[in-house]
Amino acid sequence: MHKTYKTRIAFILIVLSVLSLDIYGSYLKVQSQPPVNHTYAGSFVNHDGIIILNYHRILNESWVVKGIKAVNNNEQIHTYNVPFSEFKKQMKFLKQHHVQVISYQKMLEMTKQPTIKGQYVVLTFDDIDRTMPENAYPILKQYQFPFTFYVITGKVNKDMDGSVMASWSDIKRLAKDPLATVGVHTNNLHYQLNNKPVLSTDISHKRLRTDYQRSQDAMLLHLGRKADIFAYPYGAPNQYLSNYMADHGIVSMVTLDAGIVISGSNPKMPPRVLVNDQSWPNFEKWISDDK
Ligand SMILES: [Zn+2]
Description:
Blueprint: H1 3-30, E1 49-55, E2 57-59, H2 63-71, H3 75-80, E3 81-83, H4 84-96, E4 100-101, H5 104-110, E5 119-127, H6 131-143, E6 147-151, E7 159-160, E8 163-164, H7 168-176, E9 180-184, E10 192-193, E11 196-197, H8 205-223, E12 229-231, H9 239-247, E13 252-254, E14 273-274, H10 279-288
Keywords: Signal
Main location: secreted
GO biological process, one term: carbohydrate metabolic process
């Protein structure tokens, strides 16, 4: 081989490896959420009811993601990200099994019924980075599935842990769709201190109130209405904030506590299931189990 040619190839290889390290680095940054073990095994005890499913990022499964998944056993990779190909399969599964995907509002109304017959699903999305409007939304639209999404109002259009969050124009576009319900996910209290969600620390009540008001002000400013539903970051609730929000317009707040919504469930704090590669098989089993 010619010497210059060799040098050129070596140079290209070096550039490629630096680039892939960079992608690898930003990919890992996405994972800086607390480790949770949400397999939800054994929690789907009722045959009939409503399961609220929760998604975060719907990532394109490029070779980088695949490579990392193969070599890195870090549970968080599997916990908060669902590959786009999996998401498509999951939505198809719901359609093929005639699972009734309902809106959050419909779910709240159904908890007041004397009984709930059949199996229902509410689809929820937290944080709202760009993969929600770019990847998830077209699929939801295709199947005409109602969906609910929770916005971190102070992070819109910004970088968060290596993810680029959706813009207000994206969020407006989604919110305009009759399939959509929009909630808040704090204004700027979606982070951790010493590996603890900030809402689980002794944060001042004043900060909690101010943050909540800011999130509602942003909703009003950008979407023309306040939200009446809320999702706790990392699924970690705060008693003071719950009481305060209940007195100031929030009718229902979700965590990530296991369970099925049934008749008589408390609509103020229904259970919710984080979708990951351990919980989804249990969910499929729930749908497929004929009792
Ligand atoms: Zn979140």
